[in-house]
Each structure stands twice: as C-alpha cells, then as structure tokens.
Design brief:
There is one protein chain. The protein is α/β, with parallel strands linked by helices. The chain is elongated and about 70 Å long. The two termini are 40 Å apart. The strands form 4 sheets. The chain has an 8-stranded mixed β-sheet with strand order 8-9-11-10-12-13-18-19, with helices on both faces. The chain has 15 helices and 19 strands. Helix content is 34%, strand content 22%.
C-alpha cells in the first residue's frame, strides 16, 4: 500500500515506479521464513562467554549474519551500526553471528567497523556451522528479525528492509496540525496545505515549500513524513498541487515546467509575506525537483535558504528531444496538439516544445546555496546520473546515492525522508 501511494498513477509504466525484483529473490530463498519459531542457539561470545538466544525472550531481536573477511558485510556494516545506535535505545537487541574462524581477525574487524553489540560465533567455516543450517543462511550478509513472541518477522539480505521494519514498529503517535488554503497560481487557484509548529507571539520559523512530480499531488507519505517531522522540530511547511494536478485548477494538458515554476514562485511569494516565516527552503521530487532547482536558480540563495532534490527528473528535456515521454512517441520537431497518456490524461504540445529547449542545469547553476540531492541507482524513470549532475554543478552540495532504490524510494521511504529531514533541520537551524 505504501509503495502504491508513492507511484505516479501511470498504469502503462507502473512497473517502472514500483520495486524491482531484489537480491532476496536470489540470495534469501532458503532463509528461515517469517512466522516460524526462531531456532534457539547457544554460542560463545567474542569474549568467550556463553550466550543463548532465549535469554532475549520478550524482546525484538535482529540477528546479523556476517564475517570480517566478507567484503559485502564490511560494506553494510556502517548501516547496521547506525541501526543499532538508533533502535537499541528503543529496546531492540542486535546480535552479530560471525562466520569467522579466527577470533583475532573477528575482534579486529569489530573494532575497525565500530561494532559494539553482542557478537557470537562457532569459529567454524561458514558452510560447516550449525547456525547457518538452522537459519538457512546461504549468503552473507543476511539478517533475521525475531519478534517479541520469538517468531521470525523478517529474513533478508538487504539492510534497508530491516530498517523499514524497525521504523514502522514504533510509530511516533504525532498528530499533525494542518491548515488548508488556496493560492493564486499561474493557471488558476492552487490548493495547498500548511503545517506549522506552535509559535509564541512574534516568534518566527523557517518554511519549506514542497514541489511534487509529473502527474502527482501534494499528498502522500513521501512528503507527509517529512512535513510531519519538520513540524515536530519547529519548522513550517507548505505542500500544494500544481496547475492541472490534484485539487488545483487548470487543465493537465496546459501544464508545462515553466508555468509550474511560476506556480512555485507565487507560493513562495505568499509564504514570504507571512509574518512568522523567517527563511524559505525548497524540496522537489521528480519533475518537482527540476522546478525546485530552476526556481532556486532564478531567485538565488538570497531568497532560498536550502534546496533538497529527490530523484530530480532532468531527463524530461532529453525525453522531449528524443520524442518519447512515458513510452508515448511523437515528432519532437512538430509535436501534436497533445499526446494521449493514461487514464484520459493529455500531455500538451506546449509541454513538449518548452521541455525541448528547457535550460534546466543552466538555470539551476545560478543557485549556489546549501543543497542535497538524493537518488536511487535502481531508478528506471530517471537514471541517477541526472541527479549526480546537479551535485557536480553545485559546489559543496551533498549527494546521497541509494543503492537499488527506485524512483519512488519504495524500498525504504523512511531512509529517504529521514535524510531529507536531517539535512533541512541542520541547514535551517543555522543563522
């Protein structure tokens, strides 16, 4: 359900927006299955003490199968350590099950990687260990999550699935306060939602403007998780539907990137006049990332305090030049009045002609303030190299490349939204 909310409603290209088959389909096929009772075991810790899994009964436990000699394990270790530091404070226990045969190499590996949670091993070759047979481990790194009842809740070779499970295990219970409003846009009235923290009389706070993607809307977890977190931490936000999208006025076939930039500017002008707004930042996903980047370039760092781009779709210009948008082909040198897409939607010929010569990077380069670009290597809608180019032209920008993640970050939306939120809170807290 979560992944579906993230997808643009494009039936003909649905597979491009959803998760692709991942490494679990190849390497986790024999891992112990969810719902089964987790096999108990007794092993020696790295300090020679005896450890039993049953001693953690009643707690959520993460078993991390790894070895100091395993390159993939060492690559994943920083993420496992990060999860331990975050979730152990919430009562989750981590146990490293090492396939090392040399205790000193094992110990040095833990020290080098900063691993501090409980470590156990049989000190036997991987395929000779009883624990690997009991849990069906044929590949490392592998991870198994055990619930409080002692049953397997998740088995995977992908750390981001464990992170997602643990994040959803403990909802915040936060009840956001939202105000609905309308703002005059370039092609009619724009429907918007503002969230702001409780402020004392005369108090100000930053405001973050969110720009959604092609065919999308202001609503959905990708933006809402960030706006809720910002509100909890004293930062306001505004989400709105571009013209021809969601609840806003205008026709979809009249929509172009330039008139979406004008929509964004009108929203920025509106919030700039709010007395409680101290500074303004922009966040954009997909085509909204292009709009955010170009808007920041036109307004400059004096007006825009920070920019965060999620899978920015600068490919749209190349698509127009090739004469192919979402699989629909046309003559880019003589585009039709409109191109039929999905569900009766029509892509206007003006969208194509303006996209054909759209100075995306040239305009965005004029912005030289704090920036974050986050992109997944599994994005088949917008290859990650388009995001990387923004990073290359913005000196000092942060670039986060999420391995395997698709265009909607559906593999683990929380990792993406947490990264964006952390960046905004850090930058916007600076004077």
């Amino acid at each position: 359900m979560l992944a579906a909310l993230l997808m643009v409603a494009v039936a003909t290209v649905k597979a491009q927006f959803g998760p692709e088959p991942d490494f679990d389909t190849k390497y986790a096929t024999e891992l112990v299955k969810p719902g089964t009772v987790a096999p108990d075991f007794k092993m020696k810790t790295i300090d020679g003490k005896t450890f039993r899994l049953s001693s953690l009964k009643g707690k959520t436990v993460v078993l991390d199968f790894w070895a100091s000699w395993c390159p993939d394990c060492r690559k994943d270790a920083p993420e496992v350590v990060r999860m331990y530091n975050e979730y152990h404070q919430q009562g989750v226990e981590f146990v490293g099950v090492s396939m090392d045969t040399d205790v000193e190499a094992w110990r040095k590996g833990c020290e080098a990687l900063g691993i501090e949670f409980t470590q156990v091993s049989e000190l036997k070759k991987f395929k000779e260990t009883d624990i690997a047979k009991a849990y069906g481990v044929k590949w490392i790194p592998s991870m198994v999550v055990i619930d409080k009842e002692g049953k397997v809740a998740l088995s995977t070779v992908l750390t981001y699935k464990v992170d997602k499970y643990l994040k959803e295990l403990r909802p915040t219970g936060f009840q956001p306060q939202r105000e609905r409003l309308t703002i005059d846009g370039d092609h009619g009235r724009l429907q918007a939602v503002i969230q702001k923290p409780e402020l004392a009389a005369g108090q100000q706070c930053p405001m973050v403007v969110f720009c959604h993607g092609f065919g999308g809307s202001k609503d959905g977890p990708l933006f809402e998780l960030i706006t809720d977190s910002l509100q909890r931490h004293g930062v306001a936000s505004i989400r709105f539907d571009f013209n021809g999208h969601g609840e806003s006025e205008g026709k979809f076939e009249d929509m172009t990137v330039p008139n979406e930039i004008e929509d964004a500017k009108k929203v920025i002008a509106y919030v700039r006049d709010l007395r409680y707004v101290s500074k303004i930042a922009l966040v954009g996903h997909s085509q909204g990332g292009v709009v955010a980047a170009m808007t920041a370039g036109e307004l400059g760092a004096a007006d825009i305090a920070a920019v965060a781009l999620m899978a920015p779709a600068a490919v749209l210009r190349d698509d127009a030049i090739r004469g192919s948008t979402f699989g629909k082909t046309y003559n880019p040198l003589d585009p039709p009045e409109y191109v039929e897409l999905w569900g009766g939607q029509k892509l206007g010929g003006k969208y194509i002609t303006t996209a054909f010569r759209l100075p995306i990077y040239e305009t965005a380069a004029k912005y030289q303030g704090p920036a974050l670009i986050i992109h997944g290597t599994g994005d088949r809608v917008v290859p990650y190299t388009y995001g990387l180019r923004f990073h290359q032209q913005w000196p000092g920008s942060q670039y986060v490349e999420q391995e395997y993640f698709d265009h909607g970050f559906s593999q683990n939306i929380y990792r993406t939204t947490d990264t964006v939120t952390s960046f905004l809170l850090k930058v916007l807290s600076q004077r």
